[in-house]
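Predict the 3D structure for this chain.
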Amino acid sequence: MKLKLYRILAIAAIGLMAAGCSTTTYQQIDYLQDLDYEAQLNMKENKGIVIQPQDQLSIVVSSRNPELAASLNKPLSTYLVGSEITSNRASSGTSRLIGYVVDNSGDLEFPMLGTIHVAGLNRWELQDMLKQEIISRGILMDPIVTVEYMNFRISVLGEVHNPGMYSVTGDKITLLGAISLANDLTIYGRRDNVTVIREQNGKRNIYKVDLRSSDLFESPAYYLQQNDVIYVYPNAVRAGQSTINENYFKSGSFWISLASVAVTVTNFVLTVTHLK
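Done. Predicted structure below.
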């Protein structure tokens, strides 16, 4: 009889613990719940990543005259095992182009052109500007300028499966793309409270995005910029899990409820025994 009583009390305790936890509904975890599948959405214009101070850029100039074009290009940095050498030509080892670093004033020093202000431009605008400058100064008549970002990184933190810092190839990534890099939100991530922190023009901008709504396509944070930080807040279930072992079991309500169940079960068992 005592063994049965203990089992009943254990089941009651488990029921109380389960009652202390919240549940998650489909309305809380589904993305883009208000999409009209028969309609077409206008795409927000993507103006590209804007160059900022401390960015690192790869700038390569090519031409039918490779000797003159070489004077506008930085040398390759060739890495050997346990050492580093710099040369104008690749040798054994791994070669990497040395990039241009934008200073805190938004300028960079370019061969034969001097100081150029680049902050606020995207890479296509910088390509066109450099091409026109090279032609106007008579350095080359047929330059082809290619600009790429060398330090385009984003950070994804919070309730995602693989939080961390990610390097981005190219110059375009969306918020949904960043979440994909981190292998999606966990079941405990709040879809209605994804925060994007962006530092730009000496200011820190904070955007709140609801992944359940198609309004995210219109958010300034939909297309990410370099060094953006994405943080996914935990939902009530995760918050409850972090406190249930400590706060819930320490609370008087839990023990009062458990004592009430124990009294009820004991009275029931005594009644059944008496009837027998």
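The helical segments are 2-19, 26-29, 66-70, 123-136, 175-181, 236-250, 252-275.
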